[in-house]
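Page 42, continued from yesterday. The earlier attempt failed because a stray header line got pasted into the input along with the sequence. Redoing it now with the clean sequence only.
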Amino acid sequence: MAKKQKPLKRTPLKRTLLKRKEYNPEDFKNKEYKAKKYKKKEYKVKDYRELKAREPKPFVQLTSKEAFLKLAAFCAYQERCYQEIYAKLEEWKMDEGDHYAIVTLLEEENFLNEKRFAESYTRGKFNYKKWGKRKIKYGLLQKDISSSMIQDALNSEIDDKEYFSTLTELLEKKWSELLEKEDDNFKRKHKATNYALQKGYENELIREILEDISRN
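This time it went through. Structure tokens are written below.
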């Protein structure tokens, strides 16, 4: 006489699968299948950390001394202008009555010097980003630096021969790239001119250098 089969023990998962007509007893004997198909999603610690990082931090009002020390470190890292300092004071919601005292102390301790900032900005943008004088001037005006201070920085930090040489190198490189892509000489000149103008160089100087390059 054949043994009677034990009644099917219906766990919540099996009941759900039976309703969907997806239950197969053999599947539950296969551990790999079971782990792959029915594995529960584990809570990830890094997700929790990311969520915590997005939460706004409680505002803590700085004292004048704390604000000064933070700004001193801010200026020590690289040259800063008044605009950047006042922006930080506003961000930290410092009392307006403290602004002048903090800025004055930064000047007295030689952390803040706008002439030095203008020179550093000019030097960096020309040497590393190969910006022209027009773009450098515009960038400094956006930082509320006076026109006279900008002109002094341009005169002291950029040598005319080096300026001409840098633009020549940029245009020669651009011209060689355009030779492979553009057959029309007029279009090549137009594209090379636009490129140099976007870098902040003067139109007359660009035209002069391009005339020499296009002849060769």
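Notes: The two ends are 104 Å apart (CA to CA).
Reminder to self: strip header lines before submitting.
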